[in-house]
Amino acid sequence: MPTSSARKIVILDRDGVINLDSDAYIKSPDEWVAIPGSLEAIARLTQAGYRVAVASNQSGIGRGLFDMAALNAMHAKMHRLAASAGGRIDAVFFCPHTAEDHCDCRKPQPGMLRMIAERFEIDPENTPVVGDSLRDLQAGAALGFRTHLVLTGKGEKTLAAGGLPEGTLVHDDLRAFALDFLAREAD
Ligand SMILES: [Mg+2]
Ligand SMILES: [Zn+2]
């Protein structure tokens, strides 16, 4: 059981979890296209009393593929579409660096999730981290979060490669995660 003081929150990766991913990066609002059912999943979580935070590596910034104005415009679109589905994304954290920057926020480093844990009152043991890449799960596992893999985006490849953190649960997509997670929480 969550302690009474711990806020209910779900932490999501962005590309390949909420929106379709691309090896060529998502560089503009037009390229930001929701995965079917993902916005409805966010709405279900919102309506069940969960805050939704996004933690996303965006090395395209550091590589000069797109700028902050483009990232802000993508996120404005994401917020607007989530709201029109009846949901809310409470916070978006992103790492703009490349691997060569050796920052503490680029997943699998846990810095972004640590910032979220500090901003919100979080009980990691009861907080799910949802991602499609191993590094999303490694960042979560490093801080003791519950790790969930979705098979959208890079998820199938991630599952096939193996080595998932112990206790990782696997779901077809964000919609399946939300239904399964909320059903378990209701028990
Ligand atoms: Mg991803
Ligand atoms: Zn970073």
TrEMBL record:
Keywords: Carbohydrate metabolism, Cytoplasm, Hydrolase, Magnesium, Metal-binding, Zinc. It is an enzyme of class 3 (hydrolase). Coiled coil: none annotated. The record marks S56, K107 as: Stabilizes the phosphoryl group. GO terms for cellular component: cytoplasm. GO terms for biological process: carbohydrate metabolic process. GO terms for molecular function: D-glycero-beta-D-manno-heptose 1,7-bisphosphate 7-phosphatase activity; metal ion binding. Mg(2+) binds at D13, D15, D132. The active site is at D13 (proton donor), D15 (proton donor). Zn(2+) binds at C95, H97, C103, C105. Its EC number is 3.1.3.-. Monomer. NCBIfam families: HAD-SF-IIIA, Histidinol-ppas, PRK08942.1. Belongs to the gmhB family. This is D,D-heptose 1,7-bisphosphate phosphatase. It comes from Paraburkholderia caballeronis.
